[in-house]
Amino acid sequence: MVGSLLKDPLNLSKEERVFQSQPRFSIVYLLFLKRRIGFIQLKDLLGLTPGNLDHHLRKLEEAGLTRNRRVLSWRPLVVVEITQEGIEVFRNYVVRLKSLLEGIPDKLLYDK
Amino acid sequence: MMEALDRVLEALDVVERYEDYLFRRAWGRSLIAIGTLFPLGMVIITNADILAYLTGIDANLVRLVAYAMTIVLCWGLVSYTFFGAWRTIRKESDRREGSSLHGVLIALVWFASFSLTSLAPEQLTLVSLLWASSLACFLSFVILRLTHTHDPERVILYLAVLLGLASILVLAIEDVTISGATALLAFSICFIVAGFIMHRQAAEALRVSR
């Protein structure tokens, strides 16, 4: 019990484990704040190849956190959006992360 | 635990770069729109008599329609561009209070600067456009710097200086027709080049800096 808490202090759910990788966390964080972003912009922002980004987006889509939508503009665009479930899962995760950080005694942070 | 913190910090950097991209892209598009539409409108207004003769419409009506179209298209396109960027940025729940204030201030400054051109004598109308846009760009730079909403945008300052210098060059030309055409050309080139530089900077802001 103590061992598992030390390994996973946030007691993550199956969906939350999906964004444990840095790119997926950044994608969900950005989408949580902005709701949607273009595939090309996301690729450039994260410095990923299209195939790599597609892999991360598929993982997020399978967990029901995001969805891809094709938009017809002057050129075809793929827009990535966060789902309502994604918003709730990420909000819960942030709340727990925040409470865990508040639990750190100031003594540990400031004492030499 | 530290891994989670690192992830948050990295994600914060991504969000910051995205906002920077949206801001620069909006400025880039607006500068290109102003640099294209405004001189075109002015060309139609200054050649209203020729157009009236060719179309058989009253010259004053041609001027009025061209003036209204220029104002509506310029303000409409710039407002649409900035509103799109602002709408995306404001989704963040804990945005700073000053984030929308600077936009209103800049819009007022541009409106006031261009309104002042109506006070200029007729022979200086086109040169006064360079002075108005130079003043508007300089004040926009000051507002952005004071409100700390974005990094001070040097391109806007350089544009203000360039437009001011161009106005001196135009004043040195004695021929009214040539000076008018040079003023419009300088206005257009300065704005379009600044717009493209902003676009390039937007693309650079988007790219990961590793």
Describe the structure.
- The complex is a heterodimer of chains A (112) and B (210).
- Chain A has seven helices and three strands, in the order αααβααββαα.
- By secondary structure, chain A is α+β, with helices and mostly antiparallel strands.
- Chain A has a three-stranded antiparallel sheet.
- Chain B is built from seven helices and no strands.
- Chain B has helices spanning 2-46, 48-55, 59-89, 101-116, 125-147, 154-172, 176-206.
- The mean pLDDT of chain B is 84.
- The chains are: A alpha+beta (112), B mainly alpha (210).
- Chains A and B meet through α3, α4 and α6 of A and α1 of B.
Q: How much of the residues of chain A is beta strand, in percent?
A: 15-25%
Q: How many individual β-strands of chain B?
A: 0
The proportion of residues forming helix of chain A, as a percent range, comes to 55-70%
Shape of chain A: elongated
- Report the β-strand fraction of chain B as a percent range: under 5%
* Secondary-structure element pattern of chain A, one letter each: HHHEHHEEHH
User: What's the quaternary structure here?
Assistant: heterodimer
Quick synopsis:
The complex is a heterodimer of chains A (112) and B (210). With 112 residues, chain A is an alpha+beta fold.
Task: Furnish the topology, listing elements before pairings.
The complex is a heterodimer of chains A (112) and B (210).
Chain A: H1 2-7, H2 14-18, H3 22-34, E1 36-38, H4 39-46, H5 50-62, E2 66-72, E3 76-82, H6 84-102, H7 106-110
Antiparallel strand pairs in A: 1-3, 2-3
Chain B: H1 2-46, H2 48-55, H3 59-89, H4 101-116, H5 125-147, H6 154-172, H7 176-206
Descriptive labels:
heterodimer; A: 112 residues; alpha+beta; three-stranded antiparallel beta sheet; 7 helices; 15% strand; elongated; disordered N terminus; B: 210 residues; mainly alpha; 82% helix
